[in-house]
Specification:
Layout (H helix, E strand, L loop, with lengths): L4 H26 L3 E4 L2 H10 L6 H4 L6 H34 L11 H7 L3 H4 L5 H22 L5 H12 L7 H34 L3 H8 L15 H15 L10 E5 L21 H11 L9 E6 L2 H15 L4 E8 L6 H9 L5 E3 L12 E8 L1 H4 L2 E5 L5 E4 L6 E6 L8 H14 E9 L11 E10 L7 E9 L3
Parallel strand pairs: 2-3, 2-9, 3-7, 9-10
Antiparallel strand pairs: 1-8, 4-6, 5-6, 10-12, 11-12
Helix pairs in contact: 1-13, 2-16, 4-9, 7-8, 7-9, 9-10, 11-12
Length: 488
């Protein structure tokens, strides 16, 4: 640093204090709305309607004891749900192992290879054929490189995160034994993920064979109810939401300029997604800014009036957004990198969305350089204006069991929940829907790519849907349903 060590230390401490004060101010601003647990009386309509689907602790309780049992259960269940973030982080590390390029020069693992060996990875390592042995060796080679890079992560935020996860398990990356344990841990996580994926494929195939698209969609909508909560995300759900909002506008269900308050449940963080995420640029969140851009493009919102609240239980996602807000306060924009795999065969509409992303909220800038190992990738980059970044306020909230206490004037006009409610079963989805209903204004909308049960006690009803195709690959798309809160 500076030649004068004392002066450097003083400057560093001063900078840290200023940053801390800035983040504290923004944290306070993001926490003005009060959140609380769902009370028994609020949950009672769901408990009564789904009495046969309740967890064991609630199902066996007498009517007299249920209120007190609920008060204890809701706190414990919140902790259990938040603990699922750990497994979600492991899933992100698996994607990093398979598709990352920042820690190795070895080729990315292809989706075709994963599909071929899904469900057989553990067995493959015991008695491999030549083809299987080559696949396993390529995985192990990447794992060696990942562990070595994690032991000396430098400023690479994904490697720093990998080290944090490894150290939380008690592994010492300074020793040969510790590094071997980290490698074994990552490979064991990969085996678990591949076996899970094989199980999901069987469930969906069984649903498909019923010949009822609605039943298949319903099964898909709760597919990950026992999986870890992953924060990985990408650009394409933003395209599906834009298509849905365009349909809502064209049906005159939302008036021009009528959207002022928006909530995004689980905005996500682009770590290394298997579809079209990469690790040659900093981690980023996309959906909050994609939503703002879409609302302005469609004329459904006016920039000066729009406020976006993100609702997430991941401290990693929330801290990322708070830091972005702090930088915006000092005049620094937020750069979003938009990779496009040219071998991915996107349909023209997806390509058009990729080309126009950000035109209402920022300016094009020079994108990150694509490393050789990333494949045939083209990247756009957009610097989002600080004034836009400042409109996004993060809140720590578990939508299944918590909601914000909002006055009538602060209720949301629009709530978006893509690739998040799929992590819960029908009972917890119904609790989440009830909490969303209480935060929505009458006639407001929830947009989700999940089929949600519409209970008699809810005032949420599905009123439309949009099927969006991303590419010419099979099953590569989304089915967005919009639910409207009926007037009181």
């Amino acid at each position: 640093m500076k030649p004068n060590r004392n002066r450097a230390l003083s400057s560093t401490l001063t900078g840290l204090i200023l940053v801390g004060l800035t983040l504290t101010a923004f944290y306070a601003q993001s926490s003005k709305s009060k959140d609380r647990y769902t009370t028994y009386e609020e949950a009672r309509p769901v408990l009564e309607a789904l009495s046969e689907l309740l967890p064991a602790e609630l199902h066996g309780a007498s009517p007299e004891d249920l209120p007190s049992i609920w008060a204890t259960w809701v706190v414990r269940r919140d902790a259990e749900i938040r603990a699922r973030l750990v497994q979600g982080d492991e899933d992100s590390l698996v994607n990093f192992l398979l598709f990352g390029t920042s820690f190795t020069h070895k080729p990315r693992i292809t989706l075709a290879a994963l599909a071929k060996f899904s469900g057989k990875y553990s067995e493959s390592m015991l008695a491999p054929t030549a083809e299987v042995a080559a696949f396993v060796d390529s995985i192990k080679a990447r794992a060696d490189d990942l562990v070595q890079a994690t032991s000396q992560p430098g400023a690479n935020e994904r490697l720093l995160f990998t080290r944090q996860v490894a150290e939380s398990k008690g592994y010492d990356l300074k020793t040969v034994t510790g590094r071997q344990k980290v490698k074994d841990y990552i490979l064991a996580s990969l085996a678990r993920v591949m076996n899970e994926q094989a199980g999901y494929a069987k469930v969906l195939e069984s649903a498909r064979l019923l010949g009822d698209p609605s039943s298949e969609f319903a099964e898909r909508s709760k597919l990950f109810s026992n999986r870890g909560l992953s924060s990985d995300t990408s650009l394409r759900p933003g395209f599906a939401i834009e298509r849905a909002l365009r349909s809502i506008r064209d049906q005159r269900l939302l008036a021009p300029g009528s959207v002022r308050r928006v909530a995004i449940i689980g905005p996500g963080l682009d770590f290394t997604d298997k579809q079209d995420g990469y690790d040659f640029y900093p981690q980023q969140t996309i959906q909050p800014f994609a939503t703002i851009d879409t609302l302005l493009r469609l004329g459904l919102a006016r920039g000066a009036d729009l406020r976006v609240t993100t609702l997430d239980l991941s401290s990693r996602v929330n801290d990322h957004l708070r830091r972005a807000r702090a930088r915006a306060h000092s005049g620094t924009g937020y750069v979003v990198q938009l990779p496009r795999d040219l071998s991915g065969r996107w349909v023209p509409e997806t390509v058009s969305y990729w080309k126009q992303f950000g035109e209402y909220i920022g300016v094009p800038v020079t994108p990150a350089a694509v490393p050789a190992g990333a494949g045939d990738v083209k990247v756009r980059a957009v610097r989002i204006r600080p004034t836009t970044v400042s409109t996004v306020v993060p809140e720590d909230l578990n939508i299944v069991l918590q909601r914000l206490e909002l006055s009538a004037g602060d209720q949301f006009d629009l709530v978006i929940a893509t690739n998040i409610l799929v992590y819960y079963d029908v009972f917890e989805q119904s609790l989440a829907l009830a909490n969303t209903q209480r935060m929505l204004r009458p006639d407001g909308f929830l947009l989700s790519n999940n089929a949600l049960l519409e209970l008699p006690g809810h005032r949420m009803r599905s009123v439309g849907y949009e099927t969006v195709v991303y590419s010419d690959k099979p099953n590569d798309g989304d089915h967005i349903v919009w639910y409207q809160r009926l007037p009181d």
